[in-house]
Amino acid sequence: SCQLKATEVIMVGDSLVDVFMGTCHGKAGIGVLTGNCQSTDFEKFEVAYFRDIHEIPYQELWENTKNKKILKR
């Protein structure tokens, strides 16, 4: 199960991507989620990129992402 909340929206290429923070399947961290469902229906989202918040500094999460732009925090 996933208990997450959106923290910001970033621009990756031409797409807007939601960034979430919380726990998913027992792992705490931040990441990008993808899926075709309601924003509150986290169970059905596929975890595309989820890293432990204690494992990597937040600012380094998108270090290698081209054309990144933080739109809101």
TrEMBL record:
Pfam families: Hydrolase_like. Signal peptide: none annotated. Keywords: Hydrolase. InterPro entries: HAD-like_sf (IPR036412), HAD_sf (IPR023214). It comes from the Bacteria. The keyword S-adenosyl-L-methionine does not apply. GO terms for molecular function: hydrolase activity. This is HAD family hydrolase.
